[in-house]
Write a structure and sequence with these properties.
alpha+beta, 2 domains
């Protein structure tokens, strides 16, 4: 998958280099992320002339394009607690050929360790003809990394731990796109969506759930089943349990599974399946 832009890491400011003028048919990053070429009218004429010399149709070129991949801010699930780390940068001493300073430096870093949640959206009609690129984009979202500050040494994964996807013909998600919660015991929760599905507020067949939240529901299901087995022991169930009595309460996992929600133990498997399902049908 060819990309037009790359980060330049040895500049004195945030810098990106483009191989060529943007081309959404040739470069995946231009297609998904869009661009803006800020040019005056005279500069636009020069650029069109240059494009013509390169064999491109200047009439097909646009100086700006909206992003096909829509995203929003990553928001922490826990408040910033003013944690700080003090470290020390050593002096380059002795026979070092270069020095950054005349003495060792104390470094103060504000840090936070928290899960983040971030929504994204794709209009699949805009992605038709670029199905392979779209699947690779979903694959990349499942492996996001290298997002922490202090990039020279910090390691912080941004791959989804838990994920919900709605594959729908509607123009909006229909639920709070920042709806994840972390309970006191560390479990992931998605109350609005799960409660809405169980109460038939949403067409459940449109929903995919994956990752830690599903594994925790599986564990809850196994605990409930084990509890039922211990309660029954080796004795057959009483008549009221089989003849008109109330059946044992199903777990949330079983209820969602019975309603047709697609459940995956990992976000990566979920995104792979969404990539397969996204372009089926008309």
């Amino acid at each position: 998958m060819s990309c037009n832009r790359q980060r330049l890491s040895d500049e004195e400011q945030l810098a990106v280099e483009f191989k060529d003028y943007p081309d959404a048919d040739k470069y995946a990053d231009d297609f998904f992320m869009g661009w803006l070429v800020a040019a005056s009218e005279s500069d636009r004429k020069k650029i069109r002339d240059e494009l013509k010399q390169r064999g491109r149709d200047p009439g097909q070129f646009t100086f700006k394009r909206d992003s096909v991949l829509r995203m929003n801010m990553a928001v922490a699930l826990e408040p910033y607690r003013h944690d700080s780390v003090f470290t020390q940068s050593p002096l380059n001493a002795g026979k070092s050929p270069w020095k950054n300073a005349e003495s060792s430096q104390l470094l103060h870093r504000e840090t936070t360790v928290t899960a983040y949640q971030y929504p994204f959206a794709l209009n699949l009609e805009e992605c038709r003809g670029k199905e392979d690129w779209t699947r690779k984009l979903l694959h990349a979202i499942g492996e996001l990394n290298d997002v922490a500050g202090n990039h020279a040494r910090s390691y912080y994964e941004f791959a989804p731990a838990s994920i919900v996807v709605r594959l729908t013909g509607r123009l909006v998600a229909g639920f709070d796109t920042y709806g994840f919660r972390v309970a006191e015991n560390g479990q992931h929760e998605l109350p609005e969506v799960i409660d809405g599905i169980l109460h038939d507020d949403y067409p459940e067949s449109e929903f995919y759930l994956g990752g830690k939240i599903v594994r925790e529901m599986e564990e809850e299901k196994e605990r409930e089943e084990e509890k039922q087995k211990k309660k029954q022991g080796n004795n057959p169930p009483p008549p009221q349990a089989t003849q008109g009595g109330a059946p044992p309460e199903s777990s949330v996992y079983t209820k969602l599974e019975n309603k047709g929600v697609k459940l995956f133990r990992t976000a990566q498997k979920l995104l792979e399946q969404v990539g397969k399902d996204a372009f089926q049908g008309p």
